[in-house]
Amino acid sequence: MAHRRFRFGVSGRGDTLAQWKDFARKAEDLGYSSLDLPDHFARQFAPLPALVTAAQVTTRLRFATTMLDNDFRHPAMLAKEAATVDLLTEGRFELGIGTGSQPRDNEMTGLPFDPPGVRVERIQELLQILKLHFGKQEMIDFAGQHYQIKELPAYPKPVQQPMPIMMGARGPRMLRLAAREADIIGILPGLEGPGGLGEQMAVIRKAAGDRYDSIEFTRLHFDVQVDGKPERTNAGRGPSLAGSRDEIVEQLEKLREEHDVSYIMVIGPVIDAFAPVVAKLSGK
To answer: Is 2's pLDDT higher than 80?
Structure first.
């Protein structure tokens, strides 16, 4: 089995350009691997332009979307924007995509919220279009059930070949699709049954086959408290990490040993409190 080295991502924070740049610099200085942004119509920056801006004040930090909602952009536009972001960040972009995790976004905007089966069909077609656009073809055509593309210039091309694709997945259908197609899988909590994460990983392993060892696995931790800091956490939102610095290191080492999860993401408010864990485990 491939040895998966720890790396860490942090969700970005900031209400002004200065705050956003300062946060990006801090994330890099503290040793985080990536600066991440979700894709919602809540009080947050639009992810793609914000990540490009952060790249201008950093040199090593990578950038990830967690995850771009397929309902919000046509695949032709997403492919063009993602390749442009990779170019403008000098090959430091991780394209995270998903079917959408918050129906409230669709309610606020009037966008249809299709049944799960339709959303999975659409993201399957999206993946085909993205890989055509990022590949060697100069012009692409695609005739699917949900998307039709004709003589589309596949420009620009991403710096990274191949462009790393991350997929958020929770249930069996998306877990199997991600196992076949993604470079990074963001495993969302909520699968019913006593197996939890172990059951999800079993689905992935079976579907991935020989490519399993090349996949990186990540989880986003909302509820984090290191040595009692920060005082307020987001209890109840997804998997938690709480305890002393050494206890959390042990928790993460066990998570990797049992479930191969090595790319740990945390939310912005804990960037300072979690930094000692990043320093202890990054690259190991």
So the answer is: no
